[in-house]
Specification:
about 120 residues, 2 helices, globular
């Protein structure tokens, strides 16, 4: 058996665009992906702090250093430019492995520039 866990979190990222006519997914700046340990094609859950909507989709790698967080396809109706979101990276792992894991959390400013990365972060 495997369990689905959160391996990384992009905390309070700012949506930079929403493209209704794209096939689907979320485009995330390559710098943010590397900091969080996320990969293109990986499933993520995106929680909109602005309106409480939650959406599950896959990652498309964005251009390095542009700060892009772009919701593509149907979620473009639910996520708008400047909305604050929390992006949770998922993985399926063995329960024994899951018991030892803590997610990497990437904190950023309003322009999606990294302010801090905490590996193995646990709330106080």
């Amino acid at each position: 058996m495997l369990v689905n866990v959160c391996i990384a979190k992009l905390h309070r990222a700012t949506v930079t665009d929403a493209d209704l006519n794209y096939v689907g997914s979320v485009t995330i700046d390559e710098v943010l992906l590397k900091a969080a340990g996320l990969v293109p094609g990986q499933m993520v859950t995106i929680n909109n702090v602005s309106n409480a909507v939650s959406w599950r989709t896959y990652i498309v790698k964005g251009k390095k250093g542009k700060g892009d967080i772009i919701l593509n396809g149907p979620p473009a109706r639910l996520f708008q430019k400047s909305d604050k979101v929390i992006i949770l990276g998922e993985a399926w792992v063995d329960p024994k492995e899951a018991a030892k894991m803590s997610p990497t959390v990437v904190f950023m400013d309003d322009k999606n520039r990294i302010t801090e990365v905490k590996k193995g972060w646990r709330p106080a």
